[in-house]
Amino acid sequence: MGNWFKSGSPWIWMTSGAVSLSLIAVLGLLLLIASRGLSYFWPNSIYEWELVDYNGKKTTLIGEIYDTEFVPTERLESAGHKFKQHPGETVKRYLIKTGNRERVGLDFRWVLETDMVSRTTPTEIAMFERSKNGNFYGYPIAVVEEGKKLENENLEKSLREHISRAVDLSHQALSLQKSDIGSINYQLEKLRLKGKKYELNNELTVERQQEFQQQTNKLNEDYKLLEKQFFALKTQAARDAVLVKDMSGDIVKLPMDSILDVSFFNRMGFLDKVGHWFTGVGRFVSDDPREANTEGGVFPAIFGTVFMVMLMAVIVTPFGVIAAVYLHEYAKKSTVTKMIRIAVINLAGVPSIVYGVFGLGFFVYMLGGSLDQLFYPEALPTPTFGSPGVIWSALTLAILTLPVVIVSTEEGLSRIPSSVRQGSLALGATKAETLWRIILPMASPAIMTGLILAVARAAGEVAPLMLVGVVKLAPTLPIDMNFPFIHLERKFMHLGFHIYDVGFQSPNVEAARPLVYATSFLLVSVIVTLNLTAIGVRNHLREKYRSLEH
């Protein structure tokens, strides 16, 4: 036994066991997030319950089961609930999504199993996904077209056709609003600022005033035409409606332009549910958010996260590599160099919120405010770069991740044998040529490793971004078709902040819980995708420059 301990085998088993436990914990966490997140899009059965309370009052409830749990009977009785018969030590209760928010207040409610008399799954019950007020559950009765009730044998087919028509018209109106009308508004604002700039410089002549007025009039005429088209499309989309009987027995008229889709979950087979699941995942990834981020998709957050991380990588890589090359190849081994290295390493341990405060003070207020004073005085007091934006977020995270790139690059440079440098110099190459053609290509895998670590950390950071650029809802993306096409001064959405906002700031916590898992899984997927891309580039560079090592 003593020899076994002296051989070092126990430490090998202990370290391998610790690594295995860590991997199992990470995989378990990922599986939990994936199962909770992906199951959010799976269509559940829609039930109709008959409920009877202890007073004998009967009610009908329609909805989907979201969760179940057992509650101590004593706790329910202390809260004022009464039972006809004692149910035992615990009572099972269901969390049911009832929808119909404008009629019942909340989307979710807890129901005790002891109050349930019967439960059925009628095939006629439909779930209406709406653009406002969440889902609506009920029995479709008839389609109303231009105020007239249609008498169709195939109600579902007629309903889907009218919804498809309304959705197409609404999409056309939204596209018109975002592209053409948005472009005219952008040009009008640019024209106004241009005129004000001439006025501040005392260069606003009568000819220029007339020219601006002509351009403004032309744009206003185009705007009125587009506005007319927009309202015509909205009117056409709102032409029809559908009559639905809700769980209280009332007939409710739902405008067709408020409905995005209708689903009869209780009629679906397995393949239909799989198709609906893929459709739900696709819409979650590609749509804009709705209802204070608790409904709809997260495309602006995905775009903002990827765009900000790529911008950060473009900024941090040259700075980190240049700093590492100077420290390793040019700087003398002095006390000052040691202090710089210690400072760089210590920077990696600074809390991220401190970087956020620094970014807000230095980049936003000082640098951005100075840019506004120098280049955009006509827009003041409304700031252009003097307010949080995607460029300041990328710069702040670049400083946050700079130590990682410097340390990783320096380690890569130190692994290159000095004989390689001496051989290159002996063949007549200058030091700069040796560095550019030999050293940096050989160190490129280490540089990419540092970049991978930087991307992983930057994509998951939220605290500093809350101060320097990220917002709950950004109406426009940092990239559009208006010159200069890339708008680095704009605020943006981020998946990490979206999780925080939906999970902790949402007015409806029960509705937001599955969405938090889905967004968390999406954030992990985005980080893994970014890392796999960087790893692929690193492996390619490693193979490309492997011949230089021999």
TrEMBL record:
<keyword id="KW-0813">Transport</keyword>
<dbReference type="GO" id="GO:0005315">
    <property type="term" value="F:phosphate transmembrane transporter activity"/>
</dbReference>
<dbReference type="InterPro" id="IPR005672">
    <property type="entry name" value="Phosphate_PstA"/>
</dbReference>
<dbReference type="GO" id="GO:0005886">
    <property type="term" value="C:plasma membrane"/>
</dbReference>
<feature type="transmembrane region" description="Helical">
    <location>
        <begin position="438"/>
        <end position="459"/>
    </location>
</feature>
<keyword id="KW-1133">Transmembrane helix</keyword>
<dbReference type="Pfam" id="PF00528">
    <property type="entry name" value="BPD_transp_1"/>
</dbReference>
<dbReference type="InterPro" id="IPR000515">
    <property type="entry name" value="MetI-like"/>
</dbReference>
<feature type="transmembrane region" description="Helical">
    <location>
        <begin position="385"/>
        <end position="407"/>
    </location>
</feature>
<protein>
    <recommendedName>
        <fullName>Phosphate transport system permease protein PstA</fullName>
    </recommendedName>
</protein>
<comment type="similarity">
    <text>Belongs to the binding-protein-dependent transport system permease family. CysTW subfamily.</text>
</comment>
<feature type="domain" description="ABC transmembrane type-1">
    <location>
        <begin position="302"/>
        <end position="534"/>
    </location>
</feature>
<feature type="transmembrane region" description="Helical">
    <location>
        <begin position="298"/>
        <end position="327"/>
    </location>
</feature>
<dbReference type="GO" id="GO:0035435">
    <property type="term" value="P:phosphate ion transmembrane transport"/>
</dbReference>
<keyword id="KW-1003">Cell membrane</keyword>
<dbReference type="InterPro" id="IPR035906">
    <property type="entry name" value="MetI-like_sf"/>
</dbReference>
<keyword id="KW-0472">Membrane</keyword>
<feature type="transmembrane region" description="Helical">
    <location>
        <begin position="515"/>
        <end position="537"/>
    </location>
</feature>
<keyword id="KW-0812">Transmembrane</keyword>
<feature type="transmembrane region" description="Helical">
    <location>
        <begin position="339"/>
        <end position="365"/>
    </location>
</feature>
